[in-house]
Amino acid sequence: MKHKIGWWTAAGIVVANMIGTGVFTSLGFQLMAVENTLSIMTLWILGGLLSLIGAWVYAELGTHYRGSGGDYIFLSRTFHPALGYLYAWTSFVVGFSAPVSIAAMAMYAYLTPWLGNFNGSLLGIIVILIVTIFHSINLKYSGLFHNVFTVIKIVFALALIAFGILMPAGDSTAINFDNDFSAELLLPGFAVSLIYVSYAYTGWNSAAYITDDIESPGKNLPRALIFGTLFVTIVYVLLQIVFLKHASLNSLKGKVDVASEAFSGFFDGRLLPWISLFISIQLVATISGYLWIGPRITHAKAKEFKFWQPLSKLNNHGIPVRALWFNSGMSILLLLSGSFEQILLYAGFVLQLMGTLTILSSLFIKTDQSAFKTPLKPIPQIVYIVFSIWVLSFMLIERTWESVAGLGIIGAGLALYYFDKKVN
Question: Taking Cα atoms as reference points, which of 232, 230, 250, 235 lies closest to residue 176?
Fold first, then answer.
């Protein structure tokens, strides 16, 4: 009998996938465009509201269609198999592989005080392989491994918030209410910054990809998605306040390891290596979450298309082992190519675009009484779509190369679809 997970584990997957690289790394890039603290807070609150809308919609889609596969199932069944195929392709290439590689890159950045000149790529590869091995056994071990690192992640984030709020600010702080807050909201840089925020919130839909693994999904899937998203939104907003409070604007601008910058002044710097170590450890949960979910999408596509069919094999415990190792291989490949910011931006662009199509698909289904229904439908969907189009438009204008790279990935998947054939 296949082991099933409860809503708390499913919510833990949502939390683990959301609290990861983005919240500890993207503030520095946002401050390159906007500096007012209210602007930064607006970015993160908007990201949380859009993610909550997304959680509602995915809960509706997940309880309507039922079965693992997430967007692949939603887009294939609602619109056309080509769109589902495209989503599975982009999730394999960047959607779930890129967050793993980015988390591995960030791990090395934060572990530098401990590792010195140790090869960062080698460290990332080792961590990805260890996590993949744990997920290859069965759901019981996957859940145990994932829950342990998720608890570490949550406790650490809450400890940082408590410490940061209780400790007085230093002589130099990035908290800034001087310039015109409303003017910054209209800047192209504000819209592009939403891509960073959207990436940081990536993962709010995680539980919708593993519906088959969840006990009583009609009740537990919405609970996991909504609770996980609300919890993370509160944590994210508080963390940004803490980072801004304890570091200068110049020390944060353009930096990846913003948490290290924020806490570098405490106890003559003696606290910094330990904060860096725990940030690295909590990123293991991020890697674990994406390596759990990504292969489920690859597996869903592999069952229906001949080119990918070898990846449809399950082990005796229902784990898509071939898809798992295939996704891990792609993550390692991305780890060895491209810069941190470039991968983050083109992955964010692709995820935003494909996620918007999935939100749109919910307007074309009629759910039965047993399925969850989005509150105030269709208003939340329309709000999400309008904001998304606004962000993607500015992204195309301001970061054209990364946007074109993302569109190129989608185009390659479309070409592959027309050469591939469905399994009879």
Answer: 250
Do 149 and 333 form a contact (C-beta atoms < 8 A)? no
Q: How far apart are CA 87 and CA 123, in angstroms?
A: 30
pLDDT tens profile 203-232:
777 766 666 677 877 778 788 888 888 999
Residue 424 lies in a domain: no
Q: Which of 91, 79, 139, 165 is nearest to 410 (CA)?
A: 91
Quick check: 245 and 175 in contact, CB under 8 A? yes
Q: Is 401 exposed, middle or buried (0-12, 13-18, 19+ CB in 10 A)?
A: exposed
At 72, the amino acid letter reads Y
Q: Provide the residue type at 306 as one letter.
A: K
In a domain, 81, yes or no: yes
Separation in Å, CA 259 to CA 27, 156, 245, 264, 403:
10, 12, 11, 8, 28
**What confidence tier does 69 reach under pLDDT thresholds 50, 70, 90?**
low
* Strand positions, DSSP E, 300-412: none
Here the CATH number for the domain that contains residue 252 is: 1.20.1740.10
DSSP characters for 295-314? HHHHHHHHTTBGGGGGGG--
Domain that includes residue 180, residue range: 7-419
401: its two tokens: 């190369």
Contacts of 91 (CB under 8 A, 6+ apart): 71, 72, 294, 297, 298, 354
CA-wise closest residue to 204 among 390, 360, 359, 77: 359
Q: What residues contact 183, with CB distance under 8 A and at least 6 apart?
A: none
Asked if residue 19 belongs to a domain, the reply is yes
d(CA 237, CA 380): 22
Strand stretches in 22-104, DSSP E? none
- pTM tops 0.90: no
Instruction: Write the pLDDT tens digit of every residue in 135-177.
Output: 888 777 777 877 788 788 888 889 989 988 998 887 788 888 8
Tokens of 13: 């997957």
Q: The tokens of 36 are what?
A: 């007012």
- The residues, ordered by sequence, that sit 6+ positions from 219 with a Cβ below 8 Å of its Cβ are 7
What the block records as the tokens of 348 is 């964010």
Task: Judge contact between 77 and 69, C-beta under 8 A.
Answer: no
The count of structural domains within the chain is 1
- Contact between residue 294 and residue 97 where contact means Cβ atoms under 8 Å apart: yes
Q: Which two tokens stand for residue 112?
A: 């530098």
Is residue 1 domain-resident? Answer: no
